[in-house]
Fold each of these.
Amino acid sequence: MGAELRKLRERAGMSGAAAAAFLGGERAQISHIESGRYGVSDERVRRLAAHYAATDRHLIDALARMAEERSKGWWDEYRGILSPGFLDVAELEYWATYLRDIQMLHIPGQFQTEAYARGLIQSGVSDLPASEVNTRVEHRMRRRIIFDRPTPTPFEAFIHEAALRMRYCDAGTMIEQLEFLCEASEWPSVTIRIIPFDRQITGSVHSVLYAGAAIPALDTVQIDSAFDSGFLDAEAQLATYRELFASVETISLGPEESRKFIHRIAQEM
């Protein structure tokens, strides 16, 4: 929401100081709103949009609903304990109308068992205190809340065969993880599709989470790497990633075939 308000202000050619003056505050107030550090009421969103001469009613209505609905979520319990990136991903997933995920080397976080998540976290940063490892694992397990609601979030995951075979932990833990992934693939809102080694990948495919919003203009892409993550929301960027998912879909196995594929790899371990 803050990013979209910033875009509206910049399109209007208005400085942050001028926008803050309209609200009767200091420049820092607009900076905090646009960076997501401060909340803002739906009424104030509409006032700012009108001041910026914004004309996209669907966008303005969607932003106002976001402001009205926003409240403290379960992820806020970890503020000051985990880095903001963990909280941002959890909040993004929670409010998304649908999610699409590509994972090349890991099982998606929402479908990780505790033992697998712990092994994965410890393999990445070996000197983390045990308390932080435990907190990260707990946070990852709680992200599954999106599937426990009356209307679970639709989630489509494309997982490369490499992610199924990478040994971040012992064989027993990997077997348990793959069996749980098979179980998750049968959840009502979940679709899991495997990309086998023998399928040709065109272009640069990497791990990415696509979060759909109430309107396409508010969609967000989260890029993940071993040491950092970032968010993209420009229309040109979103279009590129929509094409990426369409391309990956053409080389992936169907849901039922993928379930059998995962089960077979578990039996081979």
Note: The mean pLDDT is 90.
Amino acid sequence: MLTETVLTQRTNARRPTLEDVARRAGVSRSTVSRVVNGEARVSAEVIARVTEVIGELGYVPNQAARQLVTRRTDAIAVVAAPPEGRLFLDPFFDLLLRGVRRELAVHGAQAVLLFLEEPDDHARVAAYLAGGHVDGAVLFSLRPGDRLHTMMDRLDIPAVFGGRPLLREGATVPGHAYVDGDNRGGARLAVRHLAGLGRRRIATVAGPYDQETSAADRLAGYRDVLPDAPSDLVQKADYSREGGAGAMAALLDRRPDLDAVFVASDFMASGALQTLRERGRRVPEDVAVVGFDDLTSIAETTDPPLTTVHQDVPEMGRLMARLLFEHTGPEASVVVPTRLVRRRSA
């Protein structure tokens, strides 16, 4: 046990400096700085010696000075343009953020949440990103042709997009990587499953396919399996529970003979199930239902429990953050596989 005198001496002792480490290790100050900042131009032997001395002296790098040299803030911007009121109500976003935060923790970084909700927010967020406050950005839920796509191409920080960007006609592909689920392949799994059950009049409640690539890809997967499906079996909604309920009602009004429906999100599927129940349709006896996302807080609690397409949302968030630290280009984009999870609705 340390005596009070020793404790006092240590408390009052001068804090070890970079020069102290260099002198004890027998190397230059710049060499110690390169070791501390993780630069590659140092031999393994020198790294081992400097690291040993740092431990002996109890040297702690001056974070403010380190940021001036390395331009690192250990902060990552998470930029989102959520539908109004949905960000903290939708478990998809919560799972995605959980994955991002998990990977940032590995790198000793913190997330800074930035929201695009008002027209002036783009300029504000772009100025913040350009101001040296963060080391990079992950961006998701952007609209097609969103100005931030082109803004990020001009900003000198790494960026990764959540979801394949939906660009306006004639726009160029952004020079950044993205992480997405296999939306088209997952939709094919869902529709093939329904067809394999013997269902012949398979409808779909599609997401806003003119606004989000996930919705466009899921509708494309439906049409891959049913290229001749008439347009009256397709109804667009907004990924909300209320949107799913209304879309299901519209489909039943047009096609009361439908016997299955692929719904492009679990949220919408929960609304569709409510409408089917109100219209006296039994699930799956009269109408089989398959959702998408496998958000267990929804899929396991619907009546009946929802057969749905699983995508690993936390892993998608983790991969977004990992690609950011690897400073990779668009060629490193990742599409996460999907699989069907069978429950009682189909």
Note: The CA atoms of residues 3 and 210 lie 72 Å apart.
Amino acid sequence: MLIEKAFISTQDVRTSDRFDFWCEQVCETYVPTEIDSDCTANFAASQRILALGAVQLWTVEHPPMTLRRSRRLIRRSDPGLYHLSLPLRGTMRLTRPGHEADYAPHDLVLHDTSRPHLMRAITGHGQDTILGTGLFVPRELLPLPENAIDRLLMRPLPGRDGVGGLLAHVLTQVARDFGSYRPDDGPRLGVVVLDLLSALLAHALEAQDALPSETRRQALVLRIRAFVQQHLCDPHLTPRTIAAAHHISLSYLHRLFQDEEETVAAWIRLQRLERARRDLADPAMRTASIHAIGARWCFPRASDFTRAFRTVYGIPPSDYRHRALCATE
């Protein structure tokens, strides 16, 4: 699993001590900050911080609260971090001198630990806690001029579609499935999220040319991979249609995948086989025929599906299904 830098939970702390414990731990694992809440009587909260190389991925759930980062606290400790937040439940209001903005679930927002600010986390109707995830990013790691990034601080960025949607998807998936990764996956995932964040900020600044060419290339490959995952059921999904959807030439698409483990066509085929494998192992789909599952993932001929499946997984799909379903009984 990924390296866990910190895990904080008030569950095992005496009820009367929970809020003070939470305040102390947040100041130690993040930055010194003043925390207030109207829910101190029984403050049920948790936070996990995972190491992605030089980047840290955090997830947090807590009752409504207010965090204040003052100039005095900044002088006390300033690690020079950008803090990217992705609210998933509840809303967030950030205030700094001369500026205030509200953020709804799935907005992405960047702020700077070196700047004074006040953050209010607010629950919605019928909600008891706020849920969110995000990144701690050393300022020097973003390949854009600081004065350009300053224009985006505390500005809502879309986290439902485009590059922002892809970044939000990666953050939530890694946070949810962190136990399925190896520790040495952390730095590689850190590079992925940095590339996506850089591409998102550059897009917002309409300054794609300010990014290093390798960052632009990686961001484009990630967008292509996400596009393919969304259209695997489409029998017309081909390298040519992918290139057209991303406004690039077919030859450039193939060059993008030269440094990847498979060609783009081979990767599409592998992803379709993987989806079929999952369906074969799913007890809820035991009544679906093997031919129907193959056809669902664009293998209309049963013999082609069997041959391709055996090549990748070493056994025919019928044997794989039998073993997988027996293991669940």
Note: The CA atoms of residues 284 and 325 lie 10 Å apart.
Amino acid sequence: MTETVSRPTLEAVAARAGVSRATVSRVVNGGDGVREPLVERVRRAVEELGYVPNQAARSLVTRRHDAVAVVIAEPETRVFADPFFALQLRGISKELTANDSQLVLLLTEGRDDHARVARYLAGGHVDGALVFSLHLDDPLPGLIHGAGVPTVFGGRPGWGDGVREAVYVDCDNRGGARQAVRHLIGLGRTRIAHITGALDQTSAVDRLDGFRDVMADAGPALVAQGDFTPAGGERAMRELLERSPDLDAVFVANDLSALGALRVLREHGRRVPDDVAVIGFDDMLPIAEQADPPLTTVRQDIEEMGRLMARLLIRGLEGRAGAEDTVPEASGVVLPTTLVRRASA
């Protein structure tokens, strides 16, 4: 059997520091009104005794749980197979760790999980939520709004009801797509096709719109729908080669789909970039560098987007401390994109 070791109490810290229990509580829980010499004595006593605040008791004082839910509206098979999510989670985790907050990961395998997630968020377990990879018909935003939880979204929200305001972080998807297509035109390509992402997500719609901004005359034969996966890129590339065998360039909605497109082009004996130039989107390393050939792509700073999402949420929580308002002020942050040139275009 393991012996139970008693934990130091507030009373023990107070006795060691020579102050009252109330003074220790204010210092430990970040309260005001304690003179600096007493603060130092309490902190020294906490360190000497190895005192760890009781989180439940601390929450009663601060009304904070020091925990943030990260909600990804995708099944776990997709989340753990796509490096995009790992990069974004890394940025979120770094920022939360720097602010002494815990990350609680919530995934949605299907619609049955949405009510579960909403109940958890409404139950007072976390201070706020970071939500990304939403689909246009997803009920999660409405459920989260109803739960009254401060939320920051990853990606431009797709609703336009004018009721639900949103704080979000995104990249310039449309501008990045225009930059990619203009680069292909600058290479002398004239039959430029596009493999979209999942068109129930705003990032894919924005990238398609950017493609059409430059290629206004491109007919439906030069656009094939993908789903942001390598298999989707393969399917779409086969469709394009069947419909438009004379194409000489492809702008693909993300790097993973571009890998699938490159495989199909090799199967059909098309040399990249000699016969067909290929540009992706994301610049996920090492995927883009290790592609065959290395992939020219539009870079978005995925990790920084995650970090910024967490930073905006934490600032919102700090700004509303003691206030009744539970929804951060509406705003959107759009980060720039850059074209990274490699061998594929």
Note: Residues 70 and 139 are 16 Å apart (CA to CA).
